[in-house]
Amino acid sequence: MWKWGLWVLYASMLFNPSSSCYQCFVEVEDSIRLCWGHVLTEYNIRNVDSCFKKLGNIFNNNQKVIEAGRVGKGYDQKLKDILNAEIMPMAEEFDKKMNNDTVYDERLLTAADNFIAAAFKLPRASGCFPPCGFQASGYVYNCITCQYDSCEFPLDCPTKNITVLENNRTQMRCDVPFPLPYEMKVVWRFAEEIRTQQVDQFEEVTVGIDRLYSIPSAGLRHQGTYQCEIYSDQRSLVRLYYHLIVIPQVVVGHSELQEIFDLSLLPGGQIVPVPGGWSLALLRLPPPSLLTACLTSLLLLLFLSLGILHWWSIKKEKSDVEQAEDDPNSRCPVREIYLLQ
Ligand SMILES: *[C@@H]1O[C@H](CO)[C@@H](O)[C@H](O)[C@H]1NC(C)=O
Ligand SMILES: *[C@@H]1O[C@H](CO)[C@@H](O)[C@H](O)[C@H]1NC(C)=O
Ligand SMILES: *[C@@H]1O[C@H](CO)[C@@H](O)[C@H](O)[C@H]1NC(C)=O
């Protein structure tokens, strides 16, 4: 009955809204043993109540103790070990023995300092990295709630915009600022043309471990939203979004073609007349003897052709007349030949 009364007293002292690592790790039984012989020096009377208050002041309302307790996932057991290593020997020592409160003050303050020093050496959680993703490693022990705090962010990250010139290369990375488990799966999905975060709009593109998505030569068909999702142990950890806009290269392509056309027309790409070239060559005349010979041969050739033509026409005329005598219907061509002559 007496013990139960102490328990209630203890509970009312320690389990207040601003609790601390002490109440997370030290059993009530041990606290009662520890405070059993607490003597108020001023009045020389035993007072357990004020011992509990002291514990509260030294551990619970001590911001340094709470900070020291903000260890990474899995290290709460280590915190418990450190604190019990300080408190348990005292509980053994002080149980059923009277001790002045000055002794308690000194011993408890030393215990708190030792706890702070040792707990700060434990691995810290890297913290929470906003704005998205399930961050398991971001869990931090909280000595006020005696629980790990999780980073409460949505799985979906905000969409990032990327623009690329048509035919140029572009890359997207499924990178997050927080640590990821070693075993994981990366799924890339694509929603053509649209800008979206709606799961049902996407189609799976690749599944594997590749966190880099490359488009060697962007075309208009690559335009749309890309989603990468990271899984570990069947659990989704994060979803990243990239909205890709491909800028058509029509104008650039046209001027490039024009340039190539111009260059192929004029080798060297310049129009510079050779000095004294063509004009002089045209003005220079051959010697007169050569000119005469040329003209003579040209005239001879002309006369010869005229002679042949004349002979041929006479011959043709004769044969046509002979033919016309045989066939009366073929007179017109004959008359035509006469007229031509
Ligand atoms: C507690 O302090 C008082 C006054 O200083 C002293 O007389 C007494 O012996 C001390 N008791 C113990 C148990 O140390
Ligand atoms: C991305 O583009 C969309 C329109 O396509 C625009 O509303 C948004 O503000 C852009 N975001 C950034 C970060 O530029
Ligand atoms: C696109 O590609 C061309 C050559 O292929 C390069 O000169 C240019 O810098 C690239 N532009 C961008 C924005 O990467």
TrEMBL record:
Name of the protein in question: Sperm acrosome membrane-associated protein 6 isoform X1
TM stretches of this protein: 290-312
Keywords, sorted A to Z: Membrane, Signal, Transmembrane, Transmembrane helix
Signal peptide residue numbers: 1-20
Highest taxon, organism lineage: Eukaryota
Keyword Secreted: no
Gene Ontology biological process terms from the UniProt entry: fusion of sperm to egg plasma membrane involved in single fertilization
PANTHER family: SPERM ACROSOME MEMBRANE-ASSOCIATED PROTEIN 6
The Ig-like domain, residue ranges: 154-238
